Amino acid sequence: MRDKKIILGMGLSALLLLVAAYFGANYLPKQKQLPPLLLMSSIPMAMGEGDPAMLLSGEAKPYHAFVKLSEDYDVQQIDDLAILKTSKTKIIMLAQPRALSPEELVILDDWIAKGGRALFLADPALAVESKYPIGDKRRPVFTSLLSPLFKHWGLEMVVSMESGDVELDYQEYQILTQTAGYWTSIKGSSKNSICNIETENWVAICKVGKGHAILLADADLMGDEFLDDAASMLGGNDNMALIINLLKKLSAS
């Protein structure tokens, strides 16, 4: 009799666990599914200047910009644009990426023209801090190497003569960065792109076929020196708020 009570008790306990699991799965708030975002950059945003082991040990940390992006997007950092041929993701951010081959530039241009959305952060003189010396392949690209694509669309980036920290405005956003460039219009070779340079000439907005692109002549605004806790204590800035807003604007366009 005692054995039967034990078995019955165990059965009731198991049943209660199943009921709790069922109601927990159906009534507890579900984790929000974030929209996907492709990210291509020579700046090691996901791991900092370290490897996975250093990231786990705390010796390396992701950039603050990557952490902020990951709060709103499921970020996939890529290094091969061939993924655009098969990916269902419709938006990509290119923040001072490596040099792209002519074939890759064609892939990117074609992908945008077919309805893709792209946010470019192209810096004429990147000043993001790096532990690697100039000339080291692991160091982020110093100057944007996407000029063939920009010229194809009818834009040319010019280096500003201002050096050091620079305050920029765009709409209601106040941006703190270093040595930003600006855009000028030239005769492009593309027949399906229209680019407009904003009043704040470091921002350009392009309609490319069925797609859209927003171009910033700066990438330093993603640097940790402008987004870390020390920067916040000094009053902060709208750097990441602008980036998130532009990505959402592209998604809605």
Walk me through the structure.
The protein is an alpha/beta fold. It has two domains: 1-30; 32-252, Rossmann fold, CATH 3.40.50. The chain has helices at 2-27, 52-57, 64-72, 102-113, 147-152, 229-233, 239-252; strands at residues 36-41, 74-77, 91-95, 117-121, 155-159, 165-170, 173-178, 181-185, 193-197, 203-208, 211-216. The strands form three sheets. It has a seven-stranded mixed sheet, with helices on both faces. Strands 5-8 form a two-stranded antiparallel ribbon. Residues 2-29 have low confidence and may be disordered. Pfam families: ABC_transp_aux.
Short account of what is shown:
The chain is of the alpha/beta class. The chain is built from seven helices and eleven strands. The chain is globular.
